[in-house]
């Protein structure tokens, strides 16, 4: 297996310290703090370790309370809130340096048949016709702001192919919408829990960036501060992250120094497998006095 993917799977392999207590390692992916998707994926994996094997995660709602330190491990405490006839509820608290940095509520369900419907997948270019976003940005690292340079210099275990990317060398404000294909760089084991945890991990990429698109010039000049505040996710159908997934994102609103974004995730053949929503800090930074 590719070393990047192998390292990511190891990151999700938590150490059990006690019945409801787990420890996960952290990793620097070029962001100034622990990547939020890492905490989401690890928290979901910890919750999964406390539910019956026949129940699958169908939703989670999380808050990022404090920036995580990627130089230190994170401890996850799972509260077994309820185990019902077909649903189980869990609350997970992530602790680092003696303080809560993250909380999450997750719900699990015993799979059941029922009525079905879904929205149509939007028209999108085929992923094989689009350049890899990471490779494209890495070719112009020296033209990127320092914060973005660190992020793109790190080689990620996922491919991202965007239909309308913004050129950091010639930035332009754009509509708060984007279509991005994502896929793990290599085939993964047939493990539904693993794929759902990786789905949570990768769902945090580019979501808040959708709210930044109308203000990208200010962001690239260092005039906007970004940070995730919360993250919600719904798993509608089984998913494989080693196959192309289309993320149809939009940001209906930004106000009060907060930006809101949402995303519908489709398989290549049009099945809606998940939805995400996030609100993040979009705080203006005053220009320094001359």
Report what the structure shows.
The chain has 290 residues and is an alpha+beta fold. It contains seven helices and twelve strands. The chain has helices at residues 3-11, 36-48, 133-138, 146-153, 192-202, 207-212, 216-220; strands at 15-18, 21-24, 56-64, 74-83, 87-96, 99-109, 158-162, 177-184, 224-235, 245-255, 258-267, 272-284. It has a twelve-stranded antiparallel β-sheet with strand order 1-2-4-5-6-3-9-12-11-10-8-7. A hairpin with a 3-residue loop joins strand 4 (74-83) and strand 5. Helix 2 (36-48) packs antiparallel against helix 5. The longest helix is centred in the first third of the chain and has 13 residues, at 36-48. It is globular, with a radius of gyration of 19 Å.
For the termini, the CA-CA separation is 52 Å
Q: Biggest sheet, strands in spatial order?
A: 1-2-4-5-6-3-9-12-11-10-8-7
Cα Rg: 19 Å
The biggest beta sheet reads: 12 strands, antiparallel
Average predicted local confidence, pLDDT: 91
Helix coverage percent: 10-25%
Which class do the helix and strand fractions yield? alpha+beta
Identify low-pLDDT runs: none
Q: Could you state the order of secondary-structure elements as H and E?
A: HEEHEEEEHHEEHHHEEEE
Percentage of residues in strands: 35-45%
Query: What is the number of helical segments per DSSP (H or I, 4+ residues)?
Result: 7
- What's the β-strand tally? 12
